[in-house]
Amino acid sequence: MTTIVPCASSAAGVAALPARAGLGLKPAHVRQILDTRPAVGFFEVHAENYMVAGGPFHEHLARIRAHYPLSIHGVGLSIGGEEPLDEAHLDRLAALLGRYAPQAFSEHLAWSGHGGAFFNDLLPLPWTPQTLARVCDHVDRVQERLRRPMLLENPATYVEFAESTLGEAEFIAEVVRRTGCGLLLDVNNAYVSCTNHGSDARAYVQALPLGAVGEIHLAGFARQQDAAGADLLIDSHGSPVDRAVWALYAFALERLGPTPTLIERDHDIPPFDTLLGEAREAERLLAARDEAVPA
Amino acid sequence: MTTQTEFAAALLDAGLPCPPGLVAWNGSDPALRFAVYRNNVVVSLVDALADSFPVTRALVGDDFFGAMAQVYVTAAPPRSRLLAFYGEGFADFVAAFPPAAALPWLADVARLEMLRVRVCHAADAEPLPDAELAALLGDPGRLPLLRLVLHPALGVLRSPHAVVDLWAAHQVEEVDLSAVDPASAQAALVVRAGGEVYVVALPAAAAAFIERVQAGATLGDAFAVAEPGLDAADALATLLRWRAIVAIGEGGPEHEWQHE
């Protein structure tokens, strides 16, 4: 497949996420959201948290879904894994997507389990023709089983592999070209990885298949040092979006035009209104692009 | 050995060297960078346990809990991608964890907390309407033959320790354990109502009775093997109060009757 289709809008019968700012749905905020119905473009949830039989999680999500567009974001599919995809997990995903009809489904270019153990982390893979073929097989299988295009998220990584023969952006562009999947451009991951590997984040973003971007993620990072004293940024999701990431986001928007944008926060969750403030900042930049891009 | 097999093994065993083939752009030692993954994995799994076992954690303090959970995480990493249920084996581990031996009630508090997680995420079901309940339960002659189907979001726990009081004491700002005698036996009914999970103290005989009813015994059979002191009417009233009966069948072996 050589035609690149913006995947947020390409699935038959699936409406796109609006080109607005969205927030991750946190259990602690559900009550306030349902009571006050804040102007948020969409909400995003981690798929695995809702793979339970019943109870308050489903009740809350159904009520949120009745009022807002939804993005379902998987963290456990292990698309970059050496092992075959877990078909039972795919079945659970299919059921979840059938139940909530989200406007977007995304997963990571990473692996998270091996040999029967699940590590609950997004682990790195080498960029080689062999891993490319395997990732494409896995993305093909996901899209076939879920009967919709998925968005694949660029990773945040802390190491590189001596055996890599492809660049990361080149690898991602090839997955998008071969499978027709979309790209979830995680701007924080791009900034973190490029800092960690001594490369230029703007050049990286420009080398990605930007025509396939269906959603953007923004988040905060933590700062450490590597053994040589160089910055080693950690994709922690535990702090506000950094100024450098806002700047890279504005740079990406200049090339993309308005794009659905999620503020991700998974640790040290602040009051809902604080996250809403970050969403407002993203909407300000989105509106600026809206005016700048000719109709 | 594949790349990911080596990488995975070194994630959970800090005694293993950094996997081969990793590099950094500036030539710095990749071991320190690999340690980020090691730390992410262990911390995220310890955090998952801390979320599921807040009272267990409070009883031993953050440091003790963190160290105990880390031993568990490295010995028994999750086998499932659904982390909500990752604590299933934790109480048994706590029971056999020598440094926790001074707190013999700790494992049962962990069992209670895991039961709360299961009840929270159990399937939804509609309780039987009052009129149907009244019709079915109103005839004392038929009662012994009835089999109750209880709500999936219900469980009981019987303990030789004061698990309900220990748990309840941690649901307020100022935790005060001075009035709690951990060595007194208690049983708990854990139920979900209006999206909240409740922990209710129950007489031990009632807990055993409800357990048998839940396992599919007729009321008559459950009563026949009841422990001394069972107030069966009170136990049934508890189930009715929590709207915990979703179907009632009559007579015959378990597999022959249909849900109403």
TrEMBL record, chain A:
Pfam families: MbnB_TglH_ChrH (PF05114)
Signal peptide residues on this chain, from the entry's feature table: none
InterPro entries listed in its UniProt record: MbnB/TglH/ChrH (IPR007801), Xyl_isomerase-like_sf (IPR036237)
Highest taxon of source: Bacteria
HAMAP family: UPF0276
Family indicated by similarity: Belongs to the UPF0276 family.
PANTHER family (alphabetical): UPF0276 PROTEIN HI_1600 (PTHR42194:SF1)
Listed name of the protein: UPF0276 protein E6O51_04370
Automatic annotation (TrEMBL), chain B:
InterPro entries: DUF2063, DUF2063_N_sf
All copies of domain Putative DNA-binding, residue ranges: 3-94
Protein name: DUF2063 domain-containing protein
